[in-house]
Design a protein that fits this description.
By secondary structure, this protein is an alpha+beta fold. The protein is built from 3 helices and 11 strands. Strands 1, 2, 3, 4, 5, 6, 7, 8, 9, 10 and 11 form an 11-stranded antiparallel sheet that branches. The longest helix has 27 residues. The relative contact order is 0.16. About 5% of the residues have low confidence.
Length: about 240
Amino acid sequence: MAICTRRGTARAFWAVALWLLASRMTAQQPDPAAIIRTIDAAVQARYESVLAFTDIEHYAVFRGSDQAHPVAEMTVKDSYRKGEGKTYTVLSESGSAVVQKFGLKPLLQNEELINQPDKVAQSWFTSANYHMELDPGGPQLLNGRACFALTIYPYRKAPNMIDGTLWADARDGSIAQIDGIASKSPSIFARTTHMMRQYEQMDGFPMARRARAESNSLLFGHTVVIIDYSDYHLQLRNGK
């Protein structure tokens, strides 16, 4: 009788322990809807707070299997002002004139277009533009930051919209990195384009630090464009 009682007590103990463990794990699971709302709020806060900025952007284009020697380079100054959009000033350019004319300059023109005041919100990484699904497993470490990973699908197809993954800072929802495939080819000559952009906190807001686009086209073949962003100067609403 004593043995049966001890066995019954042990089973009861482990049942309670497992229930407490399951309850704790459930309580620790992040709320996907809350995380998405935080991301939306962070994007909106950045737009409202950053009144203007300038930065220096260096573009390097690589062809074929050679990832060490760019066939064309361009350095530009990017000037943004809320309510007006972006303008680019070319500071230097070298290499293939064809790549400059048909590759890099159209890229800058497209950036100016999508950042026009009446269009800029259409390319934001928010739930208004993307279906977002929180990846399982909780926060993961990305470049020293605890981030949530979300699989994203755009509601409309465009060359600057991606099917892929977004990483958002687990503390404040600010975007840390995006990686995926362009939902629409940028031209009839281009095939699939893979895009990646990393962000860094500047005065409390995420700003692009490095980007990479890899594609194949009938005009240029296999091409990789790497963009490095530096020398940011931000004008914030609070006067900083």
